[in-house]
User: Fold this.
Amino acid sequence: MLGIKSVLCRIACIVSISLLSGSAGAWGDEGHEVIGLIAEHYLEPAVRARVESILAGDTTQLTSRDIAHEATWADKYRDSDRDGAQTHYFQSRNWHFINLELDGPSVNAACYGRPRLTPGGSASRGPANDCLLDKIYEFTAELRSPSTGAEERRLALQFVLHFIGDLHQPLHASDDHDQGGNGKRALVQGARWNTLHHEWDKTFVARLGRNENEIARQLIACITPAQRARWSTGRPDDWAEESFLVAKAHAYGRLPAPRSAFQYRLSAAYVEDATAVTAEQLSKAGVRLALVLNLALQ
Ligand SMILES: [Zn+2]
Assistant:
């Protein structure tokens, strides 16, 4: 799946990036911010102005209103009442992933039978049992439609900014009957035990640079016109399948034998490979997020 040329570029870029690796904060927030920054770089000027003007209407105060931070908004929204009424939490928590099973991937099963919105209904009030892929299509359609109201348009943009990112986190598009790696524990040498999902959300992203701006700048410098053209093909279904295959080959496929039940000590080779894969997934997500927005808001 990964062409030799892209692998070579990745390695060249990653070697230089890894030398800079420090401890970065927390596709945790940092991963989504990187994707937002890459997308921003590739937005057409008029589309960027539209995006900024829609986000200026965000009064939730869950994030600052720039594109990079708004790319984290959907996680903040989900968690905003997690300890209270849990309305947002139960409404939207399943929308962040598509659990394609390694031993029998089925989009229909992972998407709860692919429920449809009621005619005239808003995607932000759609069924709680729906998947990442369906929500991307629904919210993108709302962004495209001139009849979408201002509030729903803003929500649609916030969810799209985040969900294109989630679709490229391999463990948001795959499952080994372990909640996308949350049921496995992993240890990177010199760090603490975490879930495998956490390592892919945050640890490998943090190895790419000191902060989201530095990571985004370096990844953009590595993206060739040919890569951008190749990544700008297909549709979210294809990108979900690609993420699933990345998980199968790398996130799950390169795991060592477990040390004990569901516990894995990750080798340096696993970490290097995962970091390179993460760099490419973040880059693809940024390019594709810009593509989706450029098409929907032109
Ligand atoms: Zn998410």
Observations:
- The pocket of zinc ion is lined by residues 74-75, 96, 162, 166 (CB under 6 Å).
- The CA atoms of residues 167 and 240 lie 6 Å apart.
- Confidence is low (pLDDT under 50) at residues 1-5, 18-26.
- DSSP finds 14 helices and three strands in the chain.
